[in-house]
Amino acid sequence: MNSESIRSAVETARADSPAGTEALFCACALADAPVPFEMAIAAEGAMHNPALINPAAAMFAVAATLDPVCRLGLVEMDHATGTFNVPQQVRRVILDDLDPDERAVWQARALHALSLAVPDADPGSQVPEALAPHVAACVEMVREGLATPDANRILHQYGFLLHFAQRHAEAVEYLEAALAVDKRLKPETHPDIASDLEGLAAVLAAAGEHKRAVEVYRECLALFEKGWTENNRALIPVLAGLALSLRETGEKSEADEMARRTRELFESHFGDLPVEPDGVVADCLKMN
């Protein structure tokens, strides 16, 4: 297909298949890599609701969304892998025809679909490797100035999926980008920013980057002390993590002070309750 035939096919798709056109443009806004079918049926205007009911309905929604643009030669489907992709020439024409404002709009819409495809992070979840190129594309969009709640969720969840899979060093890049988004979207003392900092510091510590972890824990502690009530129990894991990373960097005197504060704060909130600390708090309370 030459450029004019591609443009003609796109106009036909706009008229005959709004859902397919949405999936096409969202795919162009993401990485030049296969896109899982579920992202096509998560795009705005797509027939995604039936997919929430049963797999048969999901496949119907995929066909209804992608078949029209596939017949026009704008996308290629691979049923064996459950993905579709946009031929490079088609991608090039579509992206070249978008002005910067239009491209930003499609990036935001693509990230909405991607956010719906990224699972919530928990220790039992698998890392969705098929989404990795598109999450990496999200990082690049953030570096170029894009900041949306969807971008934050994608990067936060994917980062912790990697962390739970013991891929701590990989997780750091995504959590740093998630933090950058929150800092653009929210006030300095917003609790989400403090939570982002605590999570990033914990992952840095897990990756063995204790010097950087100390810096991030200190930033987090300063935010808590500026925006929260004194001796708030949310400080406990922050103080504990800081104590442990300070010990790893050889700053024993300050580490002991943070451990003391952790112990006093824990006892002030839980001393009379049968609460057993875990994780970094338990490790910190064992410090001599």
What is this structure, in a nutshell?
By secondary structure, the protein is mainly alpha-helical. It is built from 14 helices and 3 strands. A 3-stranded antiparallel sheet has the order 1-3-2.
Search tags:
single chain, about 290 residues, mainly alpha, Serine Threonine Protein Phosphatase 5, Tetratricopeptide repeat, 3 domains, three-stranded antiparallel sheet, 14 helices, 3 strands, about 5% strand
* Secondary-structure element pattern, one letter each: HHEHHEEHHHHHHHHHH
What profile does the largest beta sheet have?
3 strands, antiparallel
- Total beta strand runs: 3
**Distance linking N and C termini:** 72 Å
Helical content class: 55-70%
Q: What is the molecular shape? A: elongated
CA gyration radius, whole angstroms: 23 Å
**Side-by-side strand order of the widest sheet:** 1-3-2
What is the averaged pLDDT score? 89
Q: Which residues sit in consecutive blocks of at least 5 with pLDDT less than 50?
A: 45-53
Proportion of beta-strand residues = under 5%
Number of helices: 14
Q: How many separate domains make up the residues? A: 3
Q: From the helix content, strand content and strand pairing, which structural class follows?
A: mainly alpha
Description:
- The protein is mostly helical and 288 residues long.
- 67% of the residues lie in helices and 3% in strands.
- It has 14 helices and three strands.
- Strands 1-3-2 form a three-stranded antiparallel beta sheet.
- The longest helix has 19 residues, at 252-270.
- The radius of gyration is 23 Å and the shape is elongated.
- The relative contact order is 0.07.
